[in-house]
TrEMBL record:
This is Glutathione hydrolase proenzyme. Pathway: Sulfur metabolism; glutathione metabolism. It comes from Spiribacter salinus M19-40. Residues 426-449, 545-565 are annotated as: Disordered. Keywords: Acyltransferase, Glutathione biosynthesis, Hydrolase, Transferase, Zymogen.
Length: 565
């Protein structure tokens, strides 16, 4: 008889314990204050350190970039360029910062042509001074800091200065990159730094960089001006000119980072924003996602095969336009509005069939015949990081020196970019029309870097993501945005899933991943397939509708995602 009340109390206690457990679990995943996801644990740590001292997402970004210059010198740094999307919480708005390299004022249209007038071999153009553009990363970060910095500028460089003085452990990836099949020891001081005694340094070795500590100290004390004018600028100019480049002191002093309007589109109940030109990344990712959404509405895209096929077809169409029409819109006319208009995209989406690949797509406007192919090489440099801070502000930044170790020219402890090889070498298309991405003085080469910030219907950041990977960046990013926002996948799962890429040619499937299993199905739909490594470096933050945040780090690289409480 007495057992009933006991059972009742038991149940009540059980119920309360359950509630407590659930509440603790939720507290463990507390929404906010912040998250940092970057390509190297020390860079992530520097970002976390800034957020923990009350810094903003921009403060964290600057500390992360300074550390990446030191510990991931093959990928990005103050000698290169970057694009940064910023989400400000109060009032809610997305801003685009452009720190892309510019071509020197003395550059000629035939810069990348041989004496016989044919385009240079790509790998001949990379090393030395000829492809070094005016670095833009620091001025861009300074511009963003003026508007959104919470900590003093000099504080942001302390983690990197400390590490450069005390040394950092060389990671397997950096050691492997020094062993890739490229002549990386052709120039001093890079050769002496990375190849002491003639051999590439090994993983696990502690490396100091006193020159970089000195450079960063000057920048910390005097601002970006210390880089663009005075001794550092003079060394950069002398090194570039001494190795066949055209960079001048005036080019350095005159560099301007720009704030631009981001490109945004409403897709899958989100406002998805990306970089405008001179990055093709924003426009092409938005085109692909819009085409995918429109094409999916026409079919029951329930199987993974169909979903991937539609994504790949959308990508063909996006790349056809990208390769034909896009360039630095400050120099050439680009029909941006038309290419992102509903009518145009609906017309293009109608070309997608769920049962048959359209093969090579033609660009959608006039002059359809001169599709420029996207380079075949696999890119191993460039870095992406994502930050969400305690105030709800966010940064999505992709940063690059182009090829691994850029131009191979090292000045003041950092590598100089070879970003000018992102221009089209041949200034004219097959029919004699000047190509929008031809070399011009002061112009910014077309990029594929695709930092993205997607906002939910409350204008809160839902997904902050980007990747390295050359022109494949666009596909890496579009796939993850689609998987998270359209298919409801969890960010880390989406990042780890095998990549599928189409740049308006063959369909590439990532080797040794479940993506390979799509081969037969895609072939039956008419895709020509290549299977190989697809080394993305996706780093992102997602904020679920209930405010819980997750970070995502790409296991293909060495990065981490760390929550800040
Ligand atoms: N330079 C390339 C771009 O701006 C990025 C290179 C890479 O991802 O490796 O599009």
């Amino acid at each position: 008889m007495t057992s009933k009340p006991i059972a009742f109390w038991h149940l009540l206690v059980l119920f309360w314990s359950l509630l407590l457990v659930l509440a603790t679990a939720r507290a463990d995943e507390t929404p906010q204050p912040g998250m940092v996801a970057a390509a190297h644990p020390l860079a992530t740590e520097a970002g976390v350190e800034m957020l923990e001292s009350g810094g903003s997402a921009i403060d964290a970004a600057i500390a992360i970039q300074a550390v990446l210059t030191l510990v991931e010198p093959q990928s990005s740094g103050i000698g290169g360029g970057a694009f940064l999307l910023h989400y400000a919480n109060q009032p809610a708005r997305v801003q685009a910062y452009d720190g892309r390299e510019t071509a020197p004022s003395a550059i000629k249209p035939d810069h990348f042509l041989t004496e016989s007038g044919t385009p240079m071999d790509f790998l001949d153009a990379v090393p030395g001074g000829q492809a070094v553009g005016v670095p833009g990363t620091l001025r861009m970060l300074e511009l963003a800091h003026e508007e959104h910095g919470a900590l003093p500028w000099e504080a942001l460089f302390q983690p990197a200065i400390r590490l450069a003085e005390q040394g950092f452990e060389v990671t397997p990836r950096l050691a492997d990159m020094l062993r890739i099949d490229l002549p990386l020891d052709a120039f001093e001081p890079m050769a002496g730094y990375f190849f002491p005694a003639g051999e590439p340094i090994s993983a696990g070795v502690t490396l100091t960089n006193p020159d970089l500590a000195d450079t960063l100290t000057r920048i910390a004390n005097r601002g970006a001006e210390a880089f663009y004018e005075g001794p550092i600028a003079e060394s950069i100019v002398a090194t570039v000119q001494g190795n066949g480049g055209k960079l001048t002191r005036e080019d350095m002093a005159g560099y301007q980072a720009l704030e631009r309007e981001p490109v945004c589109r409403s897709i899958a109940d989100h406002s998805i924003c990306g970089m405008p030109l001179p990055s093709s990344g924003g426009m092409t990712v938005l085109q692909i996602l819009s085409l995918l959404e429109m094409a999916s509405a026409e079919v029951e895209a329930t199987t993974r095969l169909t979903r991937r096929h539609l994504l790949l077809e959308a990508s063909r169409l996006g790349f056809a336009d990208r390769n034909e029409y896009l360039g630095d819109a400050d120099f050439v006319d680009v029909p941006v509005e038309t290419l992102l208009s509903n009518d145009y995209l609906a017309e293009r989406a109608a070309l997608i069939s769920p049962t048959q690949s359209l093969g090579t797509a033609s660009p959608g406007l006039a002059n359809p015949e001169s599709a420029m192919s996207s380079a075949k090489r696999i890119n191993h440099s460039t870095s992406h990081f994502s930050v969400l801070d305690a105030r709800g502000n966010a940064v999505s930044m992709t940063s690059s020196i182009e090829m691994p170790f850029g131009s191979r020219l090292m000045v003041g402890g950092f590598m100089l970019n070879n970003q000018l090889t992102d221009f089209r070498f041949d200034p004219e298309a097959a029919d004699g029309r000047p190509h929008p991405n031809r070399v011009q003085p002061g112009k910014r080469p077309l990029s594929s870097m695709s930092p993205v910030i997607a906002l939910d219907t409350d204008d809160q950041p839902r997904l902050i993501i980007g990747s390295p990977g050359g022109t494949r960046i666009i596909g890496y990013v579009a796939q993850r945005v689609a998987d998270v926002l359209m298919a409801g996948e969890e960010l880390q799962t989406a990042i780890e899933a095998g990549s599928v890429i189409n740049r308006n040619g063959v369909t590439e499937l990532e080797a040794e991943t479940p993506a390979e299993a799509l081969r037969a199905g895609l072939e039956a739909l008419g895709h020509e397939i290549e299977v190989g490594p697809l080394t993305s470096g996706l780093h992102g933050v997602e904020r679920l509708p209930d405010g819980v945040i997750h970070g995502g780090a790409d296991p293909r690289r060495e990065g981490t995602a760390v929550k800040v409480r």
